[in-house]
Design brief:
Layout: E1 5-9, H1 13-19, H2 23-27, E2 32-37, H3 41-50, E3 53-56, H4 65-82, E4 86-90, H5 92-104, E5 109-114, H6 124-140, E6 143-146, H7 149-157, H8 186-199, E7 206-211, H9 220-231, E8 237-242, H10 254-262, E9 266-269, H11 276-280, E10 284-287, H12 296-303, E11 308-311, H13 316-319, E12 326-329, H14 334-346, H15 348-366, H16 368-385
Parallel strand pairs: 1-2, 1-4, 2-3, 4-5, 5-6, 7-8, 7-10, 8-9, 10-11, 11-12
Helix pairs in contact: 1-3, 4-5, 5-6, 9-14, 12-15
Amino acid sequence: MKSVKLIRITTVPSSLRVLLRHQLKFMSAFYDVLAVSSPEKVLEEVAIHEGVRTASVEMTRSITPLKDLQALWKLYRLFKKEKPAIVHTHTPKAGLLGMMAARLAGVPIRMHTVAGMPLMVSTGLKKRVLQRVERLTYSCATGVYPNSKNLAEYIFKNQFCKQKKLKVLGNGSSNGIDTDFFQLTPAIASSANDLKKRFHFRESDFVFLFIGRLVKDKGIEELVDAFIQLKKNHPEIKLLLVGPYEQELDPISENTISRIEIDPNIVHEDFQHDVRPYLAVSNALTFPSYREGFPNVPMQAGCFNLPLIVTDINGCNEIVEHGKNGLIIPVKDSAALSDAMLTLLADKLLYSTLEKNARQMIVGRYDQKKLWNLLLDEYQSQLKMNEIV
């Protein structure tokens, strides 16, 4: 099997490094794995940490016709040279270019994982363009793998591809969750205590946490508004935001940025390679995103026994069972978000129930190694169908 070549592609290498952490290393025991992404230093880290070969192809996250054609040609040439049995893509641009190039190059097994669709919150011309891009991507793929059941239903209902091409592995997710890694240890507890001192958090403070990009479609504006309203009667609460601004792609308002930077009860930290101490220092996760495929952050937070407040969107409403391990609220509703945050503050019995259930529900459904083996089984099944092994 090691002679069989598997190429995995993402638009930017941080997706390989973080979202697919250790998955390529697992697959390299069975296949000759080549990881392809844009030429950034992180791609070198992927080679080291995953123990696989890498190749760089410049891909942009926006619509750039000339650069996209150049990337398509480079991917085509790479596939003709490597002659992989399987090309497996993630993220929209890598999916479009990777599936087109793989089809042109005659790659027999072309798999695309869908993990969130920007078109779900787009309108007008932009939405119509994105819909055509999705259909083109799926038409070039031999298999389409939404990472949530609701996302698969959305794809089928909107006729992006035929149902026979669609398959959700296990209970969803692109990489599952490393339940051994995401748990409280003495070292993590010590790091969390250091953070408490640095942030001047008191034992009586209730810390609401958000991890992710600080952009509009993550619900940051609603979150900041809800927090500031709630703080008027509950000065003991804190809001910890962990993640970078991306003003060039999906900007939040300057007013919201100002409130984040000025409010003494809001703490903002940039991107962190290890979010575990931030999970350990917090009391609940707030994740008011407008759209997701199957988000990792709620699973990570659940592993740290945090009650989860999420919006009623793909993935989130599969990870969370309302009233059991978290609360589900409408999208773009700061009042509902504020009410949910207040509920966790005021209802101690409910909080205790959610906290008790949080980790065991994640471990039982989304353990990483189970998902990896399901994907391995899918690769092997596809190879047999194509008479490659």
